[in-house]
């Protein structure tokens, strides 16, 4: 049991991905996990990700150097009460929630500010649960740290080094600033995506023609609407003020656009799209935000038997794992008849090299 000792209260998508990243990158490590789902713990043990499963939060976590709170936000109150009873004075307590004000307030009430550093790995997936966790989820992703006023510099430095060992990029922010930033670039987009999907659903005819042809730009900007409803309900209920404020600003901007549209104001409409294009193209093209980059391209193939199989076989023969593959029926916003999606950039680039032949034409997408 020598080496770094780490505990997890909850072992879902994020907790499991952190545990996997630590297991891959730290040689001497002993990890204990508690989760309400016994089958999750059993699988994590079989995978060799954790060393010990706990049926409850008890003294088995008392020797931890780091303890990650990874359970749903609404469980934090009860879990903190249990953690407070067994927490070692040298242990750094942290969480992985995408809203920080609520947990910081609970930590202050529990008198644990000297040991707590908020954490938010800005990585995720439309899928959730330990079964979908993977170490590479954290690679080159921003991992925001929100220390308290009582956080010792050496404790913060040690945690920052731990985050770097996972392959993530640590970024230190005040927790209030964090909640405003994430409301704008993560929480509000999820609200908008969900509302837009529901608008199309409610506007569609009985024959479902809108759903049938929905693809291209619509699928790209609403992809995040497939995320966990329960998780986003809790985020909205814990970062309400910031989301509501920015949503109000967004509603005002939509009203302004509607007026410009109704008045057929050509110059104003052009500026709307041109300014958005310029700012959007200034974004860093990396998987370092909460809405994950998609690694994909479209490809033109001849409409004859065996061509689709040839593409899939070529990639499989070269050990390139395909995340998703499908025919693009609506090509109003994109070129290419076949869309292939990969798990990472390395696989995408290797596939491009293999398929860059006179037989195929590859069309890259800017996402």
Explain what the structure shows.
The structure is a single chain. By secondary structure, this protein is an alpha/beta fold. 46% of the residues lie in helices and 16% in strands. The chain is built from 13 helices and twelve strands. The chain has helices spanning 13-25, 38-47, 76-86, 101-110, 153-165, 175-203, 209-213, 216-222, 229-238, 240-262, 266-280, 307-317, 345-355; strands spanning 4-9, 29-34, 52-54, 66-69, 92-95, 116-121, 142-147, 169-172, 295-300, 322-327, 338-342, 361-364. The strands form two sheets. Strands 3-2-1-4-5-6-7-8 form an eight-stranded mixed sheet, with helices on both faces. The longest helix has 29 residues, at 175-203. It is globular and about 65 Å long.
Key terms for this structure?
about 375 residues, 12 strands, alpha/beta
Short structural summary:
By secondary structure, the protein is an alpha/beta fold. It is built from 13 helices and twelve strands.
